[in-house]
Sequence to fold (670 residues):
Amino acid sequence: MIREVGSGKPFATISAAIADLEAAVGSTPFTETQTIRVYNGSYTETPMSQNVLKPTATYRLVIEAAAGNSPILDGQNITTYGFYFYETDYLTIKGFEIKNFASAFSTYIYNCDYVIFENLIVHDCASGYGIYFIYASKYGIIKNNVVYNCYAPLSLGENCEAFNNNIYNSNNGIGCRNNDIVHNNIVHDITFGIVVNVAANCKIYNNKVYNVNYGVSSYGYGGADNAEIHDNELYNGTVALILVGGNNMKIYNNYVYDNPYYIGIDITGNNNLIYNNLIKNIGYVSLSISNGSGNRTYNNTIYGAGWLVSMTSLTGANYLTNNILFEAGGGGCIFTVPADVGYIKSDRNCLYKTAGYIAYIWNTIPCATLAIWQANSGQDLTSISADPLFVNAGGVLATDYKLQNASPCIAAGVDLSAYFTYDFLNYTRHFWEYGAYYWLAIPVITNQFLSNYAPTQEKMLTAEMDITGRPAEQVVIINDHAFALTLVSGIHYRAIIWAYQIGLCTGQTAKFIAINDVGGSDEFAPSTITVSANGNYDIALIETAIVNLLTLYCPGLKTILNYEPKLIPELPALTLWYDGFDQTQTEAVSYTVNHKWLMRLYVRLLDAKTAQDDVKALSKSILSAFKSDLNLSNTVLKETIPSGIVSAVLDQNNTVLIVEFNLTTMTEED
Fold:
């Protein structure tokens, strides 16, 4: 059932449509979806339903803007509430601009479950709430909204999901309670980005938070036990980019940078796991661990001035392992106080400075070197103090903090797979480096002698190499041609290359080489290099491969035929005609065969310009299709379209423009 609201529609206000719906169905559970569709106009009212309507999971209550319309709910700074619903589950509100509810709530949802807010623009509620989904409300979805100039733009209930929201020029960004999931938000120019309010088990991930005082914060709001905060980008803060307290939290894979004033990540509590974070250019303390025990800080990369890791007010053992701490200013890699030294369990790290200290035991011992720190703390006894050899230390990109091949941090770490198995970019760690990045090496296979393979042969060269633990995104380059490698038996990569693609190999050494993402390589001797037996190619298979290729890459063609008919059912069309062959003998029992094909593209000729435009567009599509698969799914050695010609056929009732493509496919046959 649809009720329409607007000028000239059955209902002048949203409230009138809701009242009519309440009168029609009362508190009977919905047996069909009820939609209130609102057209352009400015509505000064409080659309409301309190414990009357009973939508269901199957039949929701939907209050939406009509297609192409942007109705405005305007409080005019005098109305207290915008949308107000109490005990109304399965509600959807979408497509409105909601503004000027200056002292209270633009939307107020109380004890309502499974509510969806989407595509709303909510603004200018300077001393009140934008979207207020709280007080026993659960399982809400808040997506694709823009909220600004509100004291509290978005306050969530329990088990909510908020994503793709753009929030700015406000005080608090997103307030979330128990079990909230918040991801893909852009939050900026506000005091509190994401407020974690007694948020046990919440998940906060894939957010971009910047130009804030506090990025993700539970400051003053209680703990966040079992929270997961990961894969967020947080920058340009003024106080702390992540400031949360709680127990058994996981803080990982966050990119935290450019807070020139105070703190990057500030964690309090017990048994928290902080790993794979990239933190750089924080003015005071990059990572602070305090007021707890059992916290584990693993495989983080921290670069900048100030104090990189501060560990104070500890109540038990706290662990620091596999980290890279690069002090580039006047602070130190590690800061602590005498009473806490015994609680620090730090080892197998790279502690490096270009200025300042390796560590500082406050008011007692400034440790300019690793040896002084070791002697006075008993910590980091097998750690190193060496340049980690970032790709570009001090660079502005996250990838600048990957490791070069010669880094002393490669394979130097402790296996922490009991806690996690991947790196900052979610690559699986097979070897354990220091820092957030797993080092991705790609093998080089050199000096394989190839001979007596003519450039037109279909023979395959197969090279296998043991590169245990390296990822599957590898290529091999032979004589400047790149080929993909396929994973075999879990630890071997096999390169399969057509001999003709290498060129004439008689008496020649072919070099197998691959380059990793930072320009380095490893060398591994292949266990085998073999050549396959000759094979024969089936013309029917080649024909099928051509038709399949055109079907996949040329959706503009309405008809594709593997013959030339008298009548074509629908244009534009392409036909394929086998037009002959030639062959030459290459070896005693081997022939190179060039199969010749004629492809005809037909387009309707109603006016010259449209037909020419169609020909040009479709010709480009066809040529691109064949370039995408040079061996037609391994049915030929190679294929080429050397030429084509355009002509008009005018001596028929339905005139057409034709492009004739000359296609040649090469095979080698016994």
Observations:
- Residues 442-536 have pLDDT under 50 and may be disordered.
- DSSP finds five helices and 52 strands in the chain.
- The longest strand covers residues 573-587.
